[in-house]
């Protein structure tokens, strides 16, 4: 049997203990998982550029909610394949640190004001939420 010196043994125990406390990204706790909130709007008057511009203006204001880490406002791209849905008018994609931050966004006064001020513009909204794996 090989003899291990006390100093080497203690060093190995310290390294093993340190590694045991490291959390790898794939082991993220649920509250640490990034959260994406992607909203698609169908305008009541899809050919009305003023309505689309007004909605985009409202989304720009909505982007001031402090829990939003990144946002993207978009319109259908010119791509055309059988799997692409281009029927929506405007998309709104948000990135949050976690689900709890998205829930703050949902009840934030800026978000509630956005709904009150701009909901008359759309006839349909579809939301796709996803959490990081």
Automatic annotation (TrEMBL):
<keyword id="KW-0732">Signal</keyword>
<feature type="signal peptide">
    <location>
        <begin position="1"/>
        <end position="28"/>
    </location>
</feature>
<dbReference type="InterPro" id="IPR013097">
    <property type="entry name" value="Dabb"/>
</dbReference>
<protein>
    <submittedName>
        <fullName>Dabb family protein</fullName>
    </submittedName>
</protein>
<dbReference type="InterPro" id="IPR011008">
    <property type="entry name" value="Dimeric_a/b-barrel"/>
</dbReference>
<dbReference type="InterPro" id="IPR006311">
    <property type="entry name" value="TAT_signal"/>
</dbReference>
<dbReference type="Pfam" id="PF07876">
    <property type="entry name" value="Dabb"/>
</dbReference>
<feature type="domain" description="Stress-response A/B barrel">
    <location>
        <begin position="35"/>
        <end position="130"/>
    </location>
</feature>
């Amino acid at each position: 049997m090989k003899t291990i010196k006390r100093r080497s043994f203690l060093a190995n125990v310290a390294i093993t203990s340190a590694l045991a406390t490291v959390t790898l990204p794939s082991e993220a706790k649920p509250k640490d998982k990034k959260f994406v909130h992607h909203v698609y709007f169908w305008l009541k008057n899809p050919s009305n550029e003023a309505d689309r511009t007004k909605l985009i203006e409202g989304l720009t204001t909505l982007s001031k909610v402090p829990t939003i880490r990144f946002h993207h406002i978009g319109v259908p791209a010119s791509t055309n394949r059988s799997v692409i849905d281009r029927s929506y008018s405007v998309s709104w994609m948000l990135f949050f640190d976690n689900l709890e931050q998205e829930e703050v966004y949902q009840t934030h006064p800026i978000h509630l004001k956005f709904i009150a001020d701009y909901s008359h513009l759309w006839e349909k909204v579809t939301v796709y939420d996803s959490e990081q794996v």
